[in-house]
Amino acid sequence: MLGNCSLDQNRLSAHRVSGFGSSGFGLSTFERNEKAKMEHALALNSLESAVYDYTAKLEEDSFSGFGTEEELQLVRQKLKEMKDWLEDMPNETSVEELKQKRREVVESSSFIKKSSPIRKLKNRKRQKEELENELSNPGNAEQKNPGLTLENIWNSNACHPHLTLSEPVQLSDSKLSKSLLVVKHNKKKSKCSSVFAVHPIPKTSAGIFYYEVTILGEATDSTEMPYNKWH
Q: Options 1.20.1270, 1.10.10, 1.10.287, 1.10.760; which CATH number does 20-108 get?
């Protein structure tokens, strides 16, 4: 009886190992199949998301300015190929093949990531040139902003008693005529305030403008400074 019992236990152990059941040391055939289906579904979903996300960005012109028309056309062509392939995707397509297809989609637009820093620098330079042109030709700014009202002014009399406000001084520059306003403390316990300009700062068509400041000290208060109000 003891020998038969030992034999039955050996058979039971062998069955558990060969079947890879949940009570054994691995996955059963059913569980392996389900895991494979899940991995395949995730890879397919990732590919489809990439294709339709890039397609939407192209339709919204989100990639405009980041590549040449030839580069953008290659992206459109790759996306069309992927859409056609997805519609007639073979049933036996492997997970690795789906991942490779997704990499192809991403790599087709890799020029966007590479050119992004350069494009940003060019855009900033272009915006600064537009601003300098508007400041040197006030008529252009008025034509772009016909409803602009000149309501902000410098007012030394309205300055806080613990601050000294120097009126704007015109500085000559080979490229640009600048106005300098100096606000400095004249007491140990001084106050801070926002300052209004005598003319609204010109903006480009994108609503972006540049101005130069000189930092004389460093503050520790993170509270936003209110306009026309002391704190």
A: 1.20.1270
